[in-house]
Amino acid sequence: MVLGLTFAGAGTAAADQSKSISGKSPDGGASISGTLTWTGRGSFKADVTLKDAKCDGNPVYFYFIINKGWTSEWQGKRRDNNEGCGKSITWKGIEGSDTNGIFGPTLRVCTDIRPGLDSCKEYAYDNPYFP
Description:
By secondary structure, the chain is mainly beta. It is built from one helix and nine strands; from the N terminus they run αβββββββββ. It has a single domain (about 15-125), classed as Immunoglobulin-like (Sandwich), CATH 2.60.40. The protein has one helix spanning about 10-15; strands at about 20-25, 30-40, 45-50, 60-65, 75, 80, 90-95, 105-110, 120-125. The strands form two sheets. Strands 4, 5, 6, 8 and 9 form a five-stranded antiparallel β-sheet that branches. A four-stranded antiparallel β-sheet has the order 1-2-3-7, with no helix packed on it. The chain is elongated. About 20% of the residues are buried.
């Protein structure tokens, strides 16, 4: 007797390994685009372009929030674009890793409102290799 075994999602992780990312702050002042690549259960790399999309004199920024599952997380380095109206900056090879695994990073993109509260939005990306 021959038994055939099928593992649901066996090919999913490889197919979802790289993902296009994009988004903008609620006020439309900051926009991001790029690629997120999972390199394992506890690591990823990203290339991200941040554009100052409004001519309002407010700089823009983004950072990753690394979610390790449940309520455990840490914040990555803040990356700023102070170049002004319509200008973009690209960061290549941003890396995040944790030996205990990463459930998923959240990318937070913001307009640095001066004076006032920053206009921010978060975009979450699940790790296909976790748990």
